[in-house]
Please model this.
Amino acid sequence: MIRSLPRRSRAIGATVLMALAVPASARAPEIVPYLWTNVKVGAGGYAPNIVFSPAERGLAYLRTDMGGAYRWDDQEQRWLPLQDGNAVESYMGIESIAPDPRNPDIVYMAAGMNAGQPAAILRSVDRGRSWRITPVPFAMGGNEDGRGLGERLAVDPNQTRRLFFGSRHDGLWRSDDAGATWAKVSSFPVAGLGPPAPRKTHGGVSFVSIDGTSGGEGRPSRRIWAGVADQGEVHLYRSDDSGQTWVAVTGPAMLAAKGVVDARGVLWVGYASGLGPSGIATGAVWRYEADGRGRDVTPTAWRETGAEGAFLGVSVSRMTPGTVAVTTVDRYRRGDSLWISRDDGRSWDDVGLRSRRDVSETPFLLHEGKGADFGHWISGLAIDPFDPAHVAYTTGATVYATHGVSSTSVNWTPWTKGIEQTAVITLASPTGGAPLISGFGDLAGFIHDDLDRSPQPTFINPYMSNTNNIDYAGLRPNVIVRSGSLYLDRLREASMGRSEDGGRTWTMVKLPSMGDPAKREDLNGDWPISVSADGATIVVATPVPQVSRDRGHSWSVVRGLPGKTRAVADKRDPRLFYAVDVYRGRVLVSRDAAASFASVAARGLPAGLSRAGRQDREAQSALVVAPSRTGTLWLQAGERLFLSNDAGQSFVPASGNLRVELYGLGKNGLFAVGTLDGVHGVWRSVDRGGSWSRIDDDAHRWGARYRVISGDPRREGRVYIGTDGRGLFYGDPTEVQ
Model:
């Protein structure tokens, strides 16, 4: 046998407090108190797993792949975000989560977005209200393939200061001091695979499951199981001496994806042919006795219907031994489902066949134009340890729960109050109609008439999974245009739409066919669309820019506007459009409703405009026009803002000492994400960039994953922020300024 853990030879544990992630400043800028509230969608993203605490009824944790972690508060009956004060982007991707099995106040998390970003073990003694952070040398992949595996982090129920963590690239690790320091378990047969190849990842040690029946209180558990999700002959190992030595365990020639031990010491394993959550061809379910004897207990009906997909959700009932549930993933032809066995896997009940879903509280789930199905990317599954009828599972878009899994008809409802985990691409706050229009990744986008209610889906005709650009007519704000792209290639006629009724209904905006017929440049969703102040003119920044004056029925080429260059409409004068030619360093203006563009003097700008904001299809425009005054426009060049009051003829600096990343306009105010005096945050200026006040705070950092920002042209002080993972926020000053 290979011998065990060395003496602290690789111990690490530089512990820091979460608050220390915020950079210090010699001179604190002025802070204006703001109230921050999520614009409600109701979950919206992939949550790889949900974990109930075995120590207290009504306590559960949810981990997401890019929006941090949540705790269910049974008294408040809502999910509470646990990392809003975190300012480290990578820590919002949660690789694993483990509540202490005896003390309900203690919980641990493994945090790290991907192999190229920082990773840490987070420890809390107050249910996630605050965290101590131990940076670790082993990389994680909270937002990589394989994030539905697990759980990789395990607490010994008999000696709770003893933890194990299965890493993707560097073997098995152990802590004997409640996660403060870690040392590699050198005796574990899979030592590590090293850094992954570009755009690839490892599954590594996919789960650690500790058999609490093999020890006693104060004495460490002796039996530990560890799964492996990389190619090789062995995918499951067992230790009977607390991790000192390990033996291989026989199983199918597939990756060990998810493993849990029940109250009798029986191990249940879901196997998969790939890491997931996509690209899995087949799988299996196995049951193992404590001595390692295993048998295949895969649901027979699943095999008979094509054996498609695998099993990434596995959960056991603590109160009813022999009861186990599994969920499928990547079962596209028949649809994913949940299977439950009450006789140790001898027979299985397909719960999906008798399931109904009520999504009236989160109607956004109907965004694809079909009824709410059982779900996709199902990898999280949990049976309540205190109530075997209470079962929850996670999907790529929501969390479902039922309190009647044994009923003839099983009713599922979204268990999402408080969860907002979405990637926001773009947004607009128009001068009339709904206060907010959003563009999301995966969910298309919404008209938000009520910021505190989940929106109805209206972004159809065409339906695009990603909305990349939104514009409205300044004088007729009920006229809205949008462009977008599909996450998966599907047959489609257009990648743009126009609405005449504030986004309630849409008509396709079809461009002339251009580019390679196999690629169709007019359909790929890369090109921003804009609409004139009166709603009559539409301009699209295709490789050959196009303009239409009859709602997109006919088109002509825009003269003087370089290909792929975004045109921005003046919000008051229908004849005026503006553009920045970053390749030639010019500001362009059209005075004939985008028929032609010409260069203007643009005095006062720095030499060269090649850094005038991001240029990709999801980028917020570097050029923004004031909604209330003709010819007033703002331009971001590098980290500085410039203001023109004469339709681009001249510009003056307008950001002071703020290093700007994103910015937007509001009523009598300017908002920005940036850094001032060493402090990174969200800022507001009421004197056209002459001075700035910080409006976020150390409790509202959201991983510093900002995508878009805009003020409200009708409500002074109101600002909207789109994040990459924690959803959409609106902020208001808490006192009259």
Summary: Residues 424-654 form a domain with the Methylamine Dehydrogenase; Chain H fold (CATH 2.130.10.10). The longest strand covers residues 659-666.
